[in-house]
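protien #1 (seq + structre)
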Amino acid sequence: MLNQLRPVLGRVLTPIGQAVARTGVTPNVITVVGTVGVVVGALGLYPRGQLFWGTMFITAFVLFDMLDGAVARVTGKISRWGAFLDSTMDRVADAAIFSGLALWLVGERAGTQTGLAALALYCLVCGAVVSYAKARAEGLGFVCDVGIAERAERVLVVLVVAGLDGLGVPYVLAAGLWLLAAASTVTVAQRFAVVYRQSAAQPVPEHK
């Protein structure tokens, strides 16, 4: 859904990417630094109950990480290794965010909220399946671009609700996690369905 905004976002980020490129920083460095920042914020601040400041810290590095593509385009350093690194680091960042929330939900400062902690872990696992389903489908030659909750939507929702919870807004974290769980489940089902239809439409090779 938010992927439809990529052309607009690209036009905004291109001049920033040009400025960053002049410093000599490579796209892969941006990817790694952005991921490390997210991991530090998520596992260093979320488990301590600092959801608002943790979200601000994570958001800063998420925005920084978005520059890797812009820098790659303006420098011509687009590569399959860079794409692989970016996708893999995205999974690491997602794991850190949801794990940090889960640790806080079962920690002493938050009380024992094992139900919500389990929900956070479900969102993590389901989000990983969403990404894997697309990668595996495309590796087999299928098109798998459907889904109401791709990574951009999932990260946006979890950061917004975590930040609002840190400001004291009641029930927003629980509502957000339930929304993410439902949307991620639907997205998995959508991707299974679209790949199944494409597979069924392909002719079965004849055996002689």
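ok now protien #2
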Amino acid sequence: MPRDLFSSEQPEEEALVASPESQTPRASDGSDGTSNATGENGYNEFTIHRDETRQGNVLHLRNGRAKEKQMNDLHPYVQTLSISNVEDCVALENAVFPEHERCSREKFIYRLSVCPELCLGLFSTRSSPPTSYTASIYDSAHPPDSATPNLKSVLIAMVIATKVDAPTVTDEAMDISQGWQNSTSPTSGTHGHQEHGRTIAIHSLGVLPAYQGQGLAKTIMKSYEQRMETSGIADRIALLAHDHLVKMYEGLGFENRGKSNAKFGGGGWNALTYEFAEHGPGS
């Protein structure tokens, strides 16, 4: 199930390097004692504190540039997932989640077949596997295109989802439609993906362990929220989270609806929803 992978040391705002459409420039009039330095694209790279010593400023600038270089080295980009990414997703899922909370290969095949448009991946283009990658992660990756066979697009973060009738994620939503491979209507019934549903149910949100704490979970989730809201295909996004993750999801605009009845993975989940603006409370 969705798991928050932000570092506790991560600042409230993080440059959304991998998703240009999700970037938000930060303005400051200096009233808070800070001024923002921006790069060529106009987005925040680092903040200079005017009351710091020169040595402190240099250190802060170096830290900001180091983070920028770290992100640039990833060569990240966001892309809709497809059935061709099944092995990528399985490898990432196994690297992130405990066994009792993992999505099975069968469910990945199902979800990437019936509703791939609801599944988003954050990729990094690499020419060789860093020591931080497990063999399965790099081996399952594909070249980004036929012109660069020496490169591989490695899945480092993903959002996997389906649509459901209910306003929150249920055990039925996490199931697979029976006989979907042989059915002319693979989304019929009460289990699994419901094409006519107005709730997007997130089943997997994960970031490769080696890249956790860099704000990538926030990057892909903000991009996902904007893409789904702009598409007009649903009224909300829903997910399940454990108690210690609720506050962080609330920081992304989700509202805690209380304890969920879902028993997946042993239960104990909180039901959270992100209401799109025109369908939010009071609209």
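Helices lie at 54-74, 86-96, 105-114, 135-139, 216-231, 246-250.
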